[in-house]
Amino acid sequence: MKKTILLLFVLLAISARAGDRAQYYRDLPFPLPEPEAPAIPDKTVSIKDFGGVGDGIALNTDAFRKAIDALAKAGGGHLVVPAGIWLTGPLVLKDRTDLHLERGALILFSPDKALFFKKDGKGMVPAITASKRKDVSITGEGIIDGNGEWWRAVKRGKVSDVEWAAYRRMGGTVTEDGKLWYPFDLDHYANVAPAPQAQEALRTHLVRFTDCERVRVAGVTLQNSPKFHLVPQRCSQVIFEGITVRCPWNAQNGDGIDIMQSTDVLVAGCTVDVGDDGICMKGGAGAEGVKHGPCRRILIRDNTVFHAHGGFVIGSEFSGGMVDIAVLDNTFSGTDTGLRFKSGPGRGGRTENIVIAGIRMSDIQDEAVVFETGYVNVSVGTEGDRAATQEYLPEFSGIRISDVVCRDARIGLAARGTRAMIHDISLKDCVFFCSEKDCDVADPAMFLLENVRFHTYDTQNE
Fold first, then answer.
1. Are 141 and 179 members of one domain?
2. Which of 170, 418, 329, 231 is nearest to 159 (CA)?
3. Interatomic CA distance for residues 315 and 309, integer angstroms
4. Do 52 and 100 sit in the same domain of this protein?
5. Is the pLDDT of residue 379 over 70?
6. Would you call 458 helix, strand, or coil by DSSP?
7. In this structure, what DSSP letter does residue 197 have?
8. Distance separating alpha carbons of residues 363 and 346, to the nearest angstrom
9. CA 390 to chain centre
10. pLDDT digits (tens, 9 = 90+) for 422-436
């Protein structure tokens, strides 16, 4: 009884915090609707009620399945995961269901890759997924860990001798040139493909929602994914608030939050520290991207990104387009680039009404703001193929950037591409301190600069 009352208090507190969500929609540069939160019934069950054991040894896949099925049969509710280490295979969420992790709870996904095969044996399912569902959420103060070190290849040049030795102790396969380690022929887990690169291509996401309506992830920590961490794909009414997303800085394809062709999305109060892009917008490639339409009506506000290839990123694939996106009051500290716009032939689309303001950046390894239209996607262990097509060219336009303060970027503003693909971009009231040079822009007519100051070590006191 006491535990039930305590849980109700926790859920009420979460609901109260949800009432503060309106603060993010004040003083917007253009109107954006606030996403509708999932409607979850008050019913609660514990994973323990279905035979779950949080000792880090027992495999709880069946217990999670039974609990989720029971909630679905009852019309939905909250599945509570108490403190403990809950080893499991993939989980599938259903309508009107909340996966709630109490403080001290750690859902750890098994390093046995065979558990993640699709039913037809072709490809892998994400660790947590929901497809064509309504009213789904993941909440609480616990941790969801994808056990990514058992999945990801590792570049020798990105790790210390101590780290490299730790990977070698797992077994695995090192390429002949000694530059790459694959988790293939591991000491304790069988391969699921005939060769290292084929197994590498099977890496899966940690949490993915596909074609869902009213989705919320709040409070939890998502970490150490085999690939991307949090992916809403073709979803509507999406709320990500107060979550932490983290993985090693050198994790291959370790994206944090990837919003894919979704509408009415809020990403607010989150902390991201990952191995690839931090908060990234994707819109599909080629005809398939056009078919599913743009990312539309997105608000990204009051987030902090530490290590990432880019703090806020559009691309590389966005053939469906990007429309009505506001990126406000975010901090990037230690990212490779700050604002990153990347694409290439066959992957590009058009951006419209993108407003970025109130951005604070520090310790940016490369460019504070960068546009690239010849981007080539390179999978680990390959050289990458440049698209031969001249269809679906990127067109970055209608982007307004203002009130940016950046200390210590190598280059302030860079653009690689033609004016046909980069144009009508404005920067206003910005300050950049650059360690190497202020701009690397082939055609200054791509940009309209108003009260933008670039400083270097030679001019910092001017």
1. no
2. 170
3. 12
4. yes
5. no
6. coil
7. H
8. 33
9. 29
10. 999 999 999 999 999
Question: CA-to-CA distance for 213 and 134, rounded, in angstroms?
Answer: 5
User: How many angstroms separate the CA atoms of 416 and 422, rounded?
Assistant: 9
- Tokens 């604002």 correspond to what residue? 339
Tokens at 435, concatenated: 């360690």
Amino acid at 161: D
As a whole number, the mean pLDDT across the chain is 93
- 434 and 296 share a domain? yes
Q: Which amino acid is at 339?
A: L
| CB-CB contact of 262 with 269 (8 Å) | no
Final residue belonging to a domain, choices 147, 162, 193: 147
What pLDDT sits at residue 254? Answer: 97
What's the start-to-end Cα distance of the chain, in Å?
67
| Half-sphere exposure in the Cβ direction for 265 (13 Å, CA) | 32
- For residues 19 and 163, what is the distance between their CA atoms, to the nearest angstrom? 44
- On whether the CB atoms of residues 375 and 330 are closer than 8 A, the answer is no
Tell me the percentage of the chain whose pLDDT exceeds 70.
92
Please report which helix (H) or strand (E) contains residue 292, including its range: helix 286-292
Q: What is the mean pLDDT of residues 62-89?
A: 98
CA gap 368, 351 in Å, rounded: 19
For residue 186, CA distances in Å to 92, 117, 200, 242 come to: 28, 18, 13, 36
Banded model confidence at residue 380, pLDDT cuts 50, 70, 90 = low
